[in-house]
Specification:
The complex is a heterodimer of chains A (346) and B (269). In chain A, 75% of the residues lie in helices and 0% in strands. Chain A is built from 14 helices and no strands. The longest helix of chain A is centred in the N-terminal third of the chain and has 35 residues. Chain A starts with 7 loop residues before the first helix and ends with a helix. Chain B has 269 residues and is α/β, with parallel strands linked by helices. Chain B folds into two domains: 157 residues, P-loop containing nucleotide triphosphate hydrolases (Rossmann fold), CATH 3.40.50; 69 residues, no CATH class. Helices cover 33% and strands 28% of the residues of chain B. In chain B, strand 1 and strand 2 form a beta hairpin. Classes of the chains: A mainly alpha (346), B alpha/beta (269). At the A-B interface, helix 9 and helix 10 of A face helix 2 and strand 6 of B.
Chain lengths: 346, 269
């Protein structure tokens, strides 16, 4: 943890570095892939849309860039931004550094919904179209149940909500395991692929579906930064300072869960982003959620697209599960930053 | 100013505070004393609007707290808990500025006036030099001053403090209480506090309310309450009151030294 409040210069540097990483991620997302297309030709194609020069891309290359890579990159940006800001928000609202966007059962609910779709509806098709819908419904059912059980009293503590989330997650996961046990080996494999998360099925339609959720829910989370700073003194003190803690908790949990459910229903369960990105941001810019949340949006977006670039290139033409890459890249980075900060702390 | 009308507070089936009636005048200091488990913390939490009475009502300036929104209530009464949570990495100035949230809200940054109020409070409590320091790096005394500064930044007419001198040495206890006394005398602040130290309670307070098992046993001037026979009975131990340079000092007496058949809390010659 940052020992003292960060200087303006440090925050500026971190913001600049994060924005640069985002730019790099966008370029990598468009340029890198099994088919070699140079950066200059892609840039020429981009500029041709605004009347500067003319495109030298063939129609096939243009399709690869704009129908395959671009929607995948944009969906990665949206997923990374939402998961990171939801994780940071959860950590603030529950005052629990181990909180992630799946804390209240989103992952288990979505997992059960997706498994239901794959096992019972798929009938041999590779990715049933009902999967995102059932995953979203499952995620929201799990969160609502958690809230009803753990938070029905306005005075319920964050701990009761977290415990209810643990119980609901265990219940939904056991139901999912039972379904998997009853299904074919082929279905089990498809369920696992979904559980590990992937952007490989991204298209503009999926981007359009999740965009409003990410924009609205992400904005609510970012705007909650100042309120989460007030909540860092505890529920009673925050109330004495004029904060309506129960209302804030409801709004923030609803926004985080809804945004996460929308993302998870489309890209599956991508782990680690929601916990590690806010943590790394906190180590760099201090403990204020006014800084952590907006920077996490940009950092999370860049982080996930860069991880996806690695996932789809290191073993091309096959892909690594995205959740594996986020963990393999994120964990060492986190450890290094933590060590550097500790060494710098008197 | 502060009016408690037949206030009772329960936790499950247990009654923690029963039928408390209290009127605290504006610009005065009322301290609630009593043994552990008497219900002091529960009662002050209700006065701060953080616990709803199971019966009766608490009102400030004629406004029932139960009917007020959190922001409205925070402009009427500030609260200093016994064990405040100090967030790591938050600068002292940022921490004190939390006291202005009820004015600018959680979606807006503090206004110029809010910053002015915070700067004034930091100056008044001699915390200006620490404004950029991490709030967790302060000593116990400085930290308690910072928490008091946050409460004063709320610019309320009433401040409720639960054991504000816990964990402080004598000098820092005196510093905090002197600061509060100054606020009462110069700014017309109304203070309602709980204190375990009976000597300090008698030294700084206009009025003492002795609470025992959730019931008000004695309510009156500090000088009278300290000498009341109910004090010793409530605490369940022998006490003497000694006059030192015109101030009452309450001294506990070990059982083997107390004289049988005499009231232990007796003014020494």
């Amino acid at each position: 943890m940052l020992a003292s409040p960060p200087s303006t210069r440090r925050v500026f540097f971190v913001v600049a570095a994060t924005v640069a990483a985002l730019g790099l991620a966008v370029v990598f997302g468009l340029v890198i892939g099994p088919t070699s297309i140079s950066t200059s030709r892609i840039l020429g194609n981009v500029f041709s849309y605004v009347g500067i020069g003319h495109s030298t891309l063939t129609s096939l290359q243009s399709s690869i860039v704009w129908q395959l890579r671009a929607p995948r990159m944009v969906l990665g940006l949206l997923a990374g931004a939402m998961l990171a800001v939801a994780g940071g928000t959860y950590q603030g609202v529950f005052r629990n550094p181990l909180a992630d966007p799946y804390l209240l059962g989103v992952a288990a609910g979505a997992g059960l919904g997706a498994t239901l779709a794959i096992v019972n509806i798929a009938h041999g098709s590779s990715v049933p179209t009902w999967t995102p819908v059932l995953a979203f419904v499952g995620a929201m059912v799990a969160v609502v149940l958690t809230w009803v059980i753990g938070g029905r009293s306005l005075r319920s503590t964050p701990a009761t909500l977290v415990l209810a989330g643990v119980a609901i997650s265990a219940l939904f996961t056991s139901a999912q395991t039972f379904l998997q046990q009853q299904s074919s080996t082929q279905s089990i494999a498809r369920v696992y692929i979904w559980l590990l998360g992937s952007l490989s099925n991204a298209n503009w339609r999926s981007v359009v579906i999740v965009l409003p959720y990410v924009v609205v829910c992400g904005a609510v989370c970012v705007l909650a930064g100042r309120a989460l700073d007030v909540m860092s003194v505890g529920d009673d003190e925050a109330r004495s300072l004029g904060l309506s803690v129960s209302t804030l908790r409801l709004v923030v949990v609803a926004a985080s869960s809804l945004g996460t459910a929308a993302i998870v229903s489309v890209v599956g369960l991508i782990g680690f982003v929601g916990i590690i990105v806010p943590h790394i941001t906190r180590l760099l810019v201090g403990t204020s959620y006014r800084r952590i949340l907006p920077i996490s949006v940009v950092f999370g977006a860049a982080f996930l697209v860069l991880c996806d670039t690695v996932a789809r290139t290191v073993m091309a033409p096959s892909e690594l599960p995205l959740g594996v890459v986020t963990a393999v890249i994120g964990a060492p980075v986190f450890v290094v930053i933590l060590s550097v900060r500790r060494m710098g702390t008197p | 100013m502060v009016h408690l009308d037949n206030v009772s507070l329960r936790a499950g089936s247990t009654t923690l505070v029963r039928d408390v009636n209290l009127d605290v005048a504006a610009g005065s200091w009322c301290t609630i004393i009593g043994p552990n488990g008497a219900g002091k913390t529960t009662l002050v939490a209700a006065i701060a609007g953080l616990r709803s009475p199971s019966h009766g009502s608490v009102s400030i300036d004629g406004q029932p707290l139960a009917e007020l929104h959190e922001r409205e209530r925070a402009r009427l009464v500030a609260y200093v808990p016994q064990h405040p949570e100090i967030p790591a990495g938050m600068a002292v100035e940022e921490y004190v500025a939390l006291g202005r949230v009820a004015f600018h809200g959680v979606l807006r940054a503090p206004s110029a006036h809010d910053r002015e109020v915070v700067a004034g409070v930091l100056e008044r409590l001699e915390l200006a030099d620490f404004r950029g320091r991490d709030s967790t790096s302060l000593s116990g005394g400085e930290r308690q001053r910072m928490v008091l500064a946050r409460a004063l930044a709320q610019a309320t007419k009433v401040v409720v403090l639960d054991e504000p001198t816990t964990g402080l040495d004598v000098r820092h206890q005196m510093d905090i209480l002197e600061q509060l006394k100054t606020e009462v005398a110069e700014c017309g602040l109304t203070v309602i506090a709980t204190l375990h130290d009976l000597t300090l309670a008698g030294l700084f307070t206009d009025r003492l309310v002795l609470l025992s098992r959730g019931v008000v046993v004695v309510d009156g001037l500090a000088h009278d309450v300290i000498r009341s026979p109910q004090l010793e009975a409530s605490y369940g131990t022998s006490l003497r009151v000694v006059n030192v340079d015109g101030s009452d000092v309450v001294v506990p007496v070990r059982a083997e030294f107390s004289r049988p058949g005499t009231a232990a809390h007796r003014l020494a010659p």
